[in-house]
Every structure is written in structure tokens, then in C-alpha cells.
């Protein structure tokens, strides 16, 4: 590697700063992008103090609390919570604990800037300040974010680990296998994930030197799986993330392919026997191989054999001799059947991966990190950072490619600097990473960007825009890498791999020439990308490159929440409705902010936008929305729900951007429950033909070990694994559970309340069980013998019988509050001052009388005394409602309609309400979107979506806070606390 620079012309000044002297006229010259000379980025924003109290959604217990933290006023409550709980360092409650966003940004940017100076990255002191200010501004304004280990470790007393992704290696010796266990444990403990290829280990069909038979890689996977299940990554926040890869020509490939499918069958048997087999259940630990993602590494030779129906040879690990010949199609069918059955194994395309390898002279690419986006040499690592694409979209809907490219240059520079001071879990990983300096710049919010600009995710225009942006990012990243090579030297392994590296960069540039644009934004961005590739090729030919790879597309789970992204990585929008937390506690449902922007971009007028958004708020989808043209439906297609994107739509988007990514793409292709094995085979085959490097599928409801998924649908309607369902022997009907009516005793406590709603008078009589709970309701409204009185009597009987059969009172309250019909208006009840209907009043009154405050809080129902107490305690006598409205005003457009979901200490303003308008926390907002009942006890966007579409989603519960997680690339992320199931 080229030696870093020294011998400054002013050694005294350099010494006084405690940094290595800088050589004159070397290093980078930097221009300001966002900042103003003489003005610090912190002085341009308004700061405020907030209290962060995070509770377990299931039982209400507090799992994190820190009060008085400091954040900019435009940061959402969710982003504040994530950063405070995940990234602030120091013991909570001690003076050493960080309490301001300024502190963690200064901690990270300060370390990067010092290392940049010490290693000769900046030509002058002015360039150093520009770098520091620009990095600070972009982090402060959520333009990009480093991966989580940077926030965990940089600038602290901990080892300065900056990488989230690691690839290990294992050889066919017991020492190497045991070292594999140890290295994985160290990486998991540090909060990261690792992957490796087990194909060097002899198969169970081969002999040992002692004359015995080898155990085979699958047997050793058991020990590694048990270790991973024991160690929580980072010591607390998530289970280990790992990837296990096996080559398709390994003699034990069938055993490997079927391991998780067989365990899934075991899970079903144990579940049916009454064991707790949900993810996180106490009995799930008895099942093996559940802590890793499995992938088969297939070759072009194998895929061609599948196409032609030829035989394929499985080879001995030491000699390479063919031990067994198999039918390629039969083996491929076993792979796709197992994936259909339990989502494993995924597939990695070996020849494609190594054809795009920049360093083949130093070794093959054998494996990937757990989420399959980082692919490079064994015993290496990659640090990641992602840009928020929506930050480059102007109010007029134009993507600012020039600003985007300049931001990429700053981020790549910072990422490379981090390798200068980074620590690594093993010396072998440290040596490889310092010699090859692999980087993984990427982006988030692509799905939101496409929708906001009026592009369908699965469309030629959407793919063209995504491809041109990704090409511009890659060209700029490698261009800056080439500039860095001229300033501080190419990576150590470059001379040996120079021809191969330049060949791969030319392949990227050639792929840019193949993009077919439709005109408009994609054409303008393509022009920028083409010019950038020209400069990059010329600079790289002269200087070489500083980094063996530049980009990946990661899941962006926790950091996506940190940046307030609507969508993660390359993913489309999850759904059109979103779960949003509010200042002061509580949450609400809103229509995603990309929807109104998309409608404006498509040419709809303000009145039409408002009507369509109201419809989406009420129904959760756009089908039959008033005034929305059918040709625009596809713009609003999402990953789940009504009009979900077809599986091949996901694959085509991946194929559009893959030629402009150094590594691969973390993404799972979601498939409907009725998909067949043939559908899976088609997806895996098309992934190979379209040039992807890796692919994984998830068929809805294919795994038992997911909360709430077992009872999704009547199993009689599910499609079987085969194209044609095999006949199933008739079985005796199983007697299902039948509810038992619990009748009230002859003598029971009761009370009668007189009420007036909008001038209509009536009486509410309730009776309860002597021990606990409401058991009957009688409502008198209207004259005796009238139709209204008869209807109310019938309604009262229906509710009473339901209560006695065990229907929770909360369910009735959730369904009947917020109903809107006459009579409505003022009441004579001081606790419920305004009601949208008699039903709305009655069930608010019943909730106040019979539900404890914690359950009422989830439903947004408080007495007058409780509301006053909350205002006094939380806001010191200021108007709580104004604070809630202000939060909405600064984060929600005027046009979207909001609907309360679960409100604690606050409520939503009426649609169209002026900022600062008074809103009664005990009264529903007056909007057409509130005609439907509140969406229950949703705790995340996934749970909200489940309530909208009426079926459960296959997503695990968060180990930390109990919230149902949502998909994020090939992983899951918790919107409640930021924990992830993977390595992002």
C-alpha cells in the first residue's frame, strides 16, 4: 500500500494539533455542498428537549427511559427514540451518558476528521473544516447514515469496530472448524453478522485418514447453530445473524437443502401437540438450524444442466473426483421445494458473482454476509453507509443528481477514512480489510422516491430511474476512489489485480450504456452518470483505485428509521398507511406522505388529492378511490395488501440496478401463499438469467414459527407444494373450542346514567359480575314501542350476550367509538364533552366506568381529570394539544388525512385543522376518514396493515419490546425500538 503522507511544511502547527503533519499540496480539495462558511451547522436548526420513554408493547413495562434529550425540532419521535436508545453511549442515569444528538455526531465526525488529517486526506485546513461541516450537516439533516457499528463504537473507549458485515472461512480440519465457532461468537458479541462457505469440509460420503467416515458439514452446522442461538448480538439487542453457504456440487448438498424443511415439519408436529413453537417461544429452542440463513451456491454449468435435463456430478472435496451423479432437474426441484416449504435455501449465482470480482488474483468469492449484499474475499469485512434518496427530491418533484453525486463523494471519503483507524474482531479480517478497503455505499427510500415521482415500482420508468440513480452513485463512488488513490494511494492488493479491477469498472460503464430511458428525469440522470463514468475510467486508468469495492444495497433497518425513511433499501412501500408516533406519547395512522406527492406529480388537483387520500385513510388501499384513474393504480402498488407487487416485479427491479452494485442486494422476494414450487423455480431461474448475484424468496405463511400466522386462513384453501394437490385421506373431524356463556347471578351490581347527546335524551343501565367485569347493557332511547327503541333493545341484548360469552369489552369500545351519525354533538357529561353519535358517547362512557386507565389509554379515552393531570405533568401547564398539532404540522402535509390508532395523552387534529387548533383528546377528529372504527391496538406499521387487510403478516415479534417487526431487505426491523433480526 502507498505510504501515508508526512513531512509537513509547518511541523510546529501540526504538532500543536496532536496530528500527523500534512504535506503541502497533497490530499483532496473539497467544495462546500450544504454549509455556509463561518456558520456551524448546529446554529442553523432549532433544538428542543424531549423525554424518551419506551415500553414493551405487550405488557406496558418500561424497557428504556431517558428524559431531557436534545434533538432538532424536525426529527420525528421515532427517530429520536431509536437514536437515544440504540446509539447514545454511557450508562443511563450517569453524567457520562450522552444526552444530545450533537454529542454523538461530534463523537463520530470528530474521529473521522482527525483520522483524515493524520492520514493525509485533506490538502488544507480549509478542506478539513469543509469535510467536518458537510458531514455534520448531512448527518444532522438525515441525508445519510453510517451503519450501526459506527454509532455504537466510534469515538468511545470500545474497540473502534466500524463494519457490520463479515465473511469468514473454514477449512477441512478440526482446528479450523473450532476456530469458526470462536470467530462467529466474537462477531455476534460485537453486534454484527457473519457468513461463510462450508464446501471445503469433506462430505459424509468421504473417508478420513483414520479410515472412518467424515461427519460432513451439516453435522458441524448443529454446533454453530447452537452457539448462535445462545449468544445475543451486541449482548442484548438481537439474536445472531449468520449465513451458511454450500456449493451445489458438494456430495452432501441434498442433506443441506433439506435440513430446515425437515425441521419445519418437526415444528408443525410439535405445535399440533401443544408445544409453544412461535418465534421466541420457549419450545422453539429444541429445533435445529434456525439461527442461520442457508444458501446454495449454483454454477452456470448446473443451471444449464437443469435447463437441458442433463446429469450433474457431485465432487469429492479433496480430489475433485465425481463421487455421485444426479439428475440436475431433480436436485433443482429439491432446492425449490425446500424454499417453497420454509423459505430456505436461498440461491447465489457463483459464476456471475466471480465474473464481477475485482480481485480474482487474490482469491475467489465464496460466500456473503448474512443478508447477501456483501460478497468479497474470505476473512474480510465491509462498512456500510446509506443515502436517503428522498432528501434529493425537490418540492417540484425533480431528483437533484448533481447534489446527489457530490454527497456520494463526501460519504465515500468518510467511509474510506474509517478503515485507517478501525478495529476488527480477528487479525485475519483486519489484514484483508486494510489491504483491500472494501466499502458498501448504498441508499434507502427508493420505493418512496418512485411513488413520489409518479413511477410504478414494477414499470419500465421506475426501473430506468432506479438504474440511472444507482449508476450515478457507482460511477461517483469509484471516481472518488480513484481520486483518493491519487492522493493517498491505491489499495494494497490493487497492483496484483489491476487488470481485473479495471475490467469490472468497464463492465459497470458498459452496463450504463445499455440503460434505456423513457425521457425526463431518468434521461437527465443518465447523462450525468455517463459523464461520471468517463471521468472515472480516465482517473482510474491513471491512479488505480483506493477501494476493492464501492457499493452494496443493504437492508437499512435501524439506520432507515434513524433517517425517517418511509421505505428501506431497494424495497417498495410496505403499505399506503403508516404508523406514526406523536410528541408526548401515543401514535396514529396516517396516509404515507409519498401518496399526495405522487398524486400531484400525476396531475391531480388539490380537491382530488384530498378525496383520494381520505379514501385511502378509510380503506387502506386505492381500489375504487374517487377520481383516481385506473392507469395510475400501479403507482400505488405496495409490498403487501391490496394490489401487492408481483414476485417478478421485485426480481426485475433487482436486475435493473444489479449491474451498478459492486456487491449484491439484500432483498427477499415475497410470494403469495398460493404460489407453487414451479413459481419458485421460475423466480430462481429468472434471477440467474437476469444477472442477479443472489436471491431469496419468502412464501406467505410458509413458516410455523411466526407469531399470529398459524391461524391466518382456513388451511383447506392453501395450495400444496406440488402443482396438483395430492389426495389426502379423510380424517375424523376435530372438535374445536366452543365458547361457554357465563351468566350473571340473579342479584348483581348495576348503575344507571342519564345522558344527552345533541339534544337527544336517554338512559344507560349496566350490570356487572360481583367479582369483576361488565356483563350486560341496557340502552333506553326513544319512546317505548318505537322502532328506535326496539332496535336499541335488540342491540343491547346482542352486546350483553357477547359479553357473557367472553368478547372483551375493549373490542366493543374499539368498534363503536368514533361512529358518526345523528344525533351527535354536545353532551351533558363533563368527561365526554362532544360525541360523534350516541354509540360513540355510550361506549366512551362504558369504557370510563369499566376499563382500567392503561387499557383506556390504548384507546385514547380519558376522563376530564386524567386529561388535566396529563397536561400539567407533561407540559407544565401548556396546552398539550397544541404540541401534538405542532408535531403533525411539521411532519405531515396539509392534505393527508390522519386517523387515530392508539393514542396516549394526545389525539389527532381534524383534517384540515389550522395549526394550533384545539383538539379534545377524548373526542375523535371530525373527518370522513374516521367513519371506520379505530384500528385496534396496532403497535407498528405491520400490525396496522394486518388490521387493514384482515390477515396476519409473517413477521417476528421484537425480542426487546414485543412489537411486530416489518420486513427490511432480507431481515426484519422493529419500528418500536430499532432492533433488527439481521446485520444492518
Automatic annotation (TrEMBL):
Organism name: Nakamurella endophytica
Cofactor(s) this protein requires: adenosylcob(III)alamin
GO molecular function: cobalamin binding; cobalt ion binding; nucleotide binding; ribonucleoside-diphosphate reductase activity, thioredoxin disulfide as acceptor
Family annotation (SUPFAM superfamilies): PFL-like glycyl radical enzymes (SSF51998)
Polar residues bias: start-end ranges: 1-16
Gene name of this polypeptide: nrdA
InterPro entries: RdRp_reductase_class-2 (IPR050862), RNR_2_N (IPR013678), RNR_lg_C (IPR000788), RNR_NrdJ/NrdZ (IPR013344), TSCPD_dom (IPR024434)
Coiled-coil segments on the chain, per record: none
Top-level taxonomic group: Bacteria
EC number of the protein: 1.17.4.1
Residue intervals of the TSCPD domain: 745-849
Function: Catalyzes the reduction of ribonucleotides to deoxyribonucleotides. May function to provide a pool of deoxyribonucleotide precursors for DNA repair during oxygen limitation and/or for immediate growth after restoration of oxygen.
Catalytic activity reported: a 2'-deoxyribonucleoside 5'-diphosphate + [thioredoxin]-disulfide + H2O = a ribonucleoside 5'-diphosphate + [thioredoxin]-dithiol
Chain intervals for the UniProt region annotation (Disordered): 1-27, 715-736, 904-926
One family name in Pfam for this protein: Ribonuc_red_lgC
Protein name: Vitamin B12-dependent ribonucleotide reductase
Domain called Ribonucleotide reductase class II vitamin B12-dependent N-terminal: residue spans: 52-142
Keywords annotated in UniProt: Cobalamin, Cobalt, Disulfide bond, DNA synthesis, Nucleotide-binding, Oxidoreductase
Family recorded in the similarity comment: Belongs to the ribonucleoside diphosphate reductase class-2 family.
Compositionally biased residues, Low complexity: 715-734, 904-925
Group of enzyme by EC: oxidoreductase
UniProt xrefs under NCBIfam families: NrdJ_Z, PRK06556.1
